[in-house]
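Hey, resending since the last one bounced:
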Amino acid sequence: MKTYNKIRKFFTYGFLLISTIILSVSCASDNDETFEPYQKAPGGPPVIQGVYTARYQEEIKQGVLENMVNIKGKNLASLKSIHFNGYQAYVNPTMVTDTDIFVVIPENAPYISNLNKIRLETAGGVVFYDFPLLTITGFNTGNDGTGDTVTLYGGDFTYANEVVFSRGSEEDNDLVENVATIISQSATEITVYVPEGTTQAYININTSLGASVRSKSYGFNYPLYVDSLNSDWGVSGWSGEQDTASTDYALGQYSVKRESEQWGGLTFMLNEGADPIVFGDYSSIAVKIYAVAEGQTLVMAINDFDASVDLELKAGEWKEFNIQLTDFYSAGSGPDTITRIDFQGSSDGVQVYYLDDFGLL
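The structure tokens again:
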């Protein structure tokens, strides 16, 4: 009898246990629409409450490639990954707390995308947050017959509402900002008129989502040739001919055309009596060169070949060079002034190339 009672109690307890499990599963199934599958994970599901600039803590709805942002929310400590438009970002674990994540938007994240979202995953689940990206990949200069223009490339410019040319800084109390007139705009290009009187500036694209991105320097601190030759300089050469007002290929109205025999050269020389160009006042030389044929190379030299660098041209397009002066001279060993800049052919045969947007930064 005692054995029978034990068996009966065992089956009774087993039935009650199974019934409890079935009931629990049934109740959960009835409420699937109100309970996310990760809700019981430690800390709960992740929540993004906003994204802010890391430095100034200003809320933004669009991010700039290579900039650090601060993602604020809840239940973030168990972070597994962050993706921007499907591209995973590296996250330093020391920059993660339960309410804040500091992360740099990857340089290679796609800025034109159908996603336009942050995907954030923790042990508690996955959350998505609307967040398009922004970058400037480059720009070209031109002239439409009524004024100088600049076309900026990159994206996503859908929400761009202002283009500003700026120079100087608030810290030095010499900040100058000029708003440009937008001619045309798409997700990947913006064309604007250059504000009158602008010789050098950085171009900022601002968006209605709070983002702002800055281009490389437009123009020059000291122009040598931009549509025309600086009047303080002269042009000459050897073993070939040059035209300082060619219209064959030009970024604006004119460019310098050079036809060189093998090892021939093009020389820019500071005129006698002109104000000296102090080497220490500048950091780089910028120039754009259009090559007619493949395989063309040049040597660019300062002060009658006192120092030089090699340039490899690209056929059929304008190639931009921005050469640091430290590539010519090691720090502290440069000359007092710059008086001459040469371009000498260094590849076989006759060379034909065009030069424009040339100056010092």
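The domain at 134-219 is CATH 2.60.40.10 (Immunoglobulin-like).

Sorry for the duplicate.
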